[in-house]
Design a protein that fits this description.
alpha/beta; 49% helix; 22% strand
Amino acid sequence: MRIMAIDYGDAHTGLAVSDATGLLAGYVEVVHSRRTGEVLAAVERLAAEYSVDEIVLGYPKNMDGSLGPRAEKAEAFAQELRGRVSLPVVLWDERRTTIDAHNILISAGKNGKKRKKIVDGVAAALILEGYLTYKKGQ
């Protein structure tokens, strides 16, 4: 079962896909666009290309667990996505994934410009790793 994870952002959206066994996560692409339609088109294209069975969308809750404007934006995107693909779309708590992604890239020696281009893809891979771990435990 192949799963796609999305780290949806204002200007950059990271996309990651698991291997066919659902054990390994890797980032595939970062969509550099503010246009929802372009992001949805990229998700549709990659979901078909990788024969994805399920989509996990990062759900940015506040650190106290409450929902703010970013979570509302993710919910709206999830609704649009459900209207475009015939796959299950799961909202997944993504607190700290972008911070963790920055830390990973800093320790790998990536400078600011290089980090900015790929951090959302790494964050999507972290979302996917968390979700895959959860699914294994069920």
